[in-house]
Amino acid sequence: MFMEFRRSSLSADQSMPGMSTPRHSLLSGRFKQSFAYLTLRTRMPGIMQQIISHMQNNTPELVDEFGEDVRKDITSIVDAIERLKVDLNRDRYFTLFHGDEPDQAKWNAFLSELPKPKRSYFRACWLHAECYLYRRIFSFFEHSQYLKTYDYFAHLKQEDLKISVPSMKVLATATRQLQKDWTTFNKLMRLSLWSNHFEIQMNAILFEGPKNEKIDVLSLLIDLDHRILANESMLVWNCLIKAKKRAQKRIIVDYVCDNAGFELFTDLIFIEYLVDTGLATQVRMHVKAIPWYISDATRQDIEWTLDFLQHHPSDILSSLGHKFAELFRSKLVIIAPQTYFWTGPQPFFVMVDVDIELFKLLAGAELAIFKGDLNYRKLMGDYIWDPTEEFITCLRGFRPTNVCAMRTVKCEVICGLPEGVADSLVLSNPQWMTSGYYAVIQYTDSLRCNCCLLDQSEQDGIACDREKTVSCSIYQHSRPVR
What we know:
Elements: H1 35-57, H2 59-66, H3 70-89, H4 104-113, H5 126-142, H6 154-163, H7 165-174, H8 182-194, H9 204-208, H10 217-222, E1 228-231, H11 233-245, E2 252-256, H12 262-276, E3 282-286, H13 299-310, H14 315-329, E4 333-335, H15 351-354, H16 356-363, E5 367-371, H17 372-380, H18 391-394, E6 402-408, H19 421-428, E7 439-444, H20 456-459
Parallel strand pairs: 1-7, 2-3, 2-5, 3-4, 5-6
Antiparallel strand pairs: 6-7
Helix pairs in contact: 1-3, 1-5, 3-5, 8-12, 13-14
Region (Disordered): 1-23
Protein name: Sugar phosphate phosphatase
Cofactor: Mn(2+); Ni(2+)
């Protein structure tokens, strides 16, 4: 049974301060004017109801696949999600996991260590509450007989790719035989960046213009540069060019993915370019181990996307799908080893404590690119920094390798902006931080001496003064903010 802690049955609204999240504090649903509160109060219950409706509407298909007994699983899962909705609405305490979840021990240790006042949905850090909800939902499926690996978000991700076919055809044509230069790199990086924002899921009309007149699709993206509030893409280019000029045998890029669907397609185009130009000898794609945040990419999403493209009736998409598949077969692009750290509640600066193997893996790369808003929140610790605080400071020592963050701005966490920019945007658009209209591309060099990559016997012979040097990445990290 769950170890369960309960608050009163009063709605969370009856004790929430009516204010936005103060500066220098963790994002939390306890502030009623915050985006965190809006998400927990409205968006998350809506997502849970969508899962319930999907399970109920999809029952005939599931019965065809698994047999009549699957109805018991569906009923049990729906009931569990309904109870979770009530717990969220009443701001009850988190409960420990009781099944055989692969990450159960780490989740339970994390929950047990939280201060009691921060164990309920609206009083916890928003990142903790939101991740807990998504993880709890999947646990209901893990405990079922037939639906242990069922992705209840798959139909949404697949539909997103299908409706983007006109855009993908145009992009596939526009990204063949590209120049191997900074200008092209710059355009493809922006393509990957802006594909996260629905408005920029360019349709064929936008791409082809009136009367089917062709336009330069990639150059169109440069016109959005005024919306990139911090742009350090040149530093990312320089990082890879320097590695290539050093004639390194291996230039590994870790690509921490965000969404499946159209965004994954644009990511694959960018990754293809990195490999084709020799800017990377291998790209490792890091995806989620379980269905996550509706649209986050999993291994199954990559496999489905490759299959969809290869078997598409469009010659250009089919050809590109076969090209992508060959990159995987030749191991120029691989899916990184599965880890539940990406679906845990921890910020990235504690990775060295909770998943040292993942930290070592990243430390062996030349560059790690973190895509999307959730990865950015975890890089920042879901903390309201001063908008002018430097990116390198807000990482709190998490620099296992050269780090790049690419995200459209969809929550109140941000840093690295020029003086006065945030104040000006507040005056012109009070919702600028949650609109997705703006974006950042931020970069910092690694902080490491590579001690972490050695076996203990090798470390014994190295003089690494960890009290004086600032170069050993394992020891340069801060403790989490509770």
